[in-house]
Specification:
Layout (H helix, E strand, L loop, with lengths): L11 E9 L4 H11 L1 H4 L3 E10 L4 E8 L2 H12 L2 H11 L3 E11 L14 E9 L4 H18 L3 E10 L4 E8 L2 H12 L2 H10 L3 E11 L7
Length: 223
């Protein structure tokens, strides 16, 4: 059911979320920052964050792959990388309570963006849409995204829809200068008639929504 137009190439993004044992979060972050160069030697990391608001003791990271054969080759190489297995995987596994992954594509009208500067925060918004994919909700959803962009208070990083995992899920990543800047921008947007109209149109296709505020790790390309 999650059908509709998307990019013409095979590039996709793997979204991995880890629930970390509460007493081990500091240790996990230190381990990532120290040894994650061993992992990024094999494939491209888009971003790595810990969750500040909206969840507790959670880490989220996103990987870019050319196609599924590329991912398979990378996973095989990682399984045989003794440094990666010994210096990161072995000490990291006891720190992790649960792992979850999804495969997602950028929606056809979005390119992966970058923040205008370092030092801000990221908002990760997950929308559970009605079945049908971008062919059904894409136009209205794009209008709602664009009207938020046009308010100028936030920067769009990417819009992804799932291919594996819970289908008809859309993840939107925004960048803001600070949580307070985001809060002020949202307050203004809610009083903007253009935003209200676009959101009312798009929520016809919405089942549920969840927000998280993310802090980038030192090793994250998106900072």
């Amino acid at each position: 059911l999650a059908t509709g137009p998307r990019q013409n190439n095979g590039i996709f993004y793997e979204i991995r979320a880890y629930d970390i044992k509460p007493s081990k979060m500091k240790e996990f972050v230190e381990l990532v920052n120290k040894h994650f160069h061993l992992r990024t030697a094999h494939s491209e990391l888009v971003g790595f964050w810990t969750v500040e608001l909206g969840a507790m003791n959670k880490a989220v990271h996103v990987w870019k792959y050319d196609n599924f054969a590329h991912r398979t080759a990378v996973r095989n190489a990682l399984a045989n990388d003794k440094d990666w297995q010994g210096k990161f995987i072995s000490p990291a596994l006891p720190l992790i309570e649960k792992q979850h992954n999804e495969v997602a594509y950028l929606v056809p009208w979005c390119q992966l963006g970058k923040p205008p500067k370092e030092g801000g925060v990221y908002e990760w918004v997950t929308f559970q849409m009605k079945p049908g994919g971008p062919a059904l909700w894409g136009e209205a959803f794009q209008a709602a995204i664009n009207v938020h962009i046009n308010t100028g208070y936030t920067k769009l990083i990417g819009v992804f829809h799932t291919e594996y995992g819970l289908l008809n899920t859309v993840h939107v990543i925004w960048w803001n200068e600070s949580p307070d800047h985001r809060a002020a921008g949202r307050h203004g947007a809610h009083e903007d008639a253009r935003v209200v109209a676009a959101v009312r149109d798009s929520v016809r296709f919405l089942e549920s929504q969840q927000n998280m505020l993310l802090i980038p790790l030192a090793c994250s390309p998106l900072k």
